[in-house]
Model the fold of this input.
Amino acid sequence: MPVRTRVTVPLRFADGYQTDAGMVTFDGLSDGKEHLALALGTPGQFPLVRMHSECLTGDVFGSQRCDCGPQLRESVERIAAHGGYLLYLRQEGRGIGLYNKLDTYTLQDAGLDTYQANRALGHGDDQRDYSAAAQMLTALGATTIDLLTNNPDKVAQLRQNRIAVREVVPTAVHASPANLRYLAAKVAHTGHTIVLPAVH
Ligand SMILES: Nc1nc2c(ncn2[C@@H]2O[C@H](COP(=O)(O)OP(=O)(O)OP(=O)(O)O)[C@@H](O)[C@H]2O)c(=O)[nH]1
Ligand SMILES: [Zn+2]
Done:
């Protein structure tokens, strides 16, 4: 069965965002998860897209351990200005789930980096599969896009799933003393393209 959009619900943000959105649900996604798309601004021929992986601690509670909260807000604002989609993907903890991510935080507090902690608990470095995201974009008619990311794996996986990524648009760097070690591990281990401030 081809993936189809299901409903689009108008969403007015309470505060913090200067935009309204259409929240889109889907039928037939291959992984059976409740992924969402936010349609923002007026998506044109080359919509700006962000694939945002769920991070309850950062997105909802503003945890300083990672950069997810500021990245989410930056993405909504930039996409609303350009026109496009924010895909909110239910891939908490790079695909290992919330409880497992919280287990890795206790190991990170004992000195392991974010990838070592995943492996110590028997998980892969990054278990995310973006084929459902490609299905969502195809159902939205967004098959040639500009992608907001610093993660080369997101670009490669979309291209493998027949989404033409025309331009890779970097996000801002949301570094702070609390998340610098985490961001540095991403750059060192996975070829993330962010340029971090020097550590003193
Ligand atoms: N396992 C694990 N997951 C984490 C940790 N910190 C953040 N995450 C998860 O990482 C994901 C966020 O990754 P993204 O914002 O897509 O970041 P990215 O892969 O660096 O890609 P871009 O931001 O697009 O460059 C979310 O699912 C978070 O829950 C951690 O220490 N351990
Ligand atoms: Zn996070």
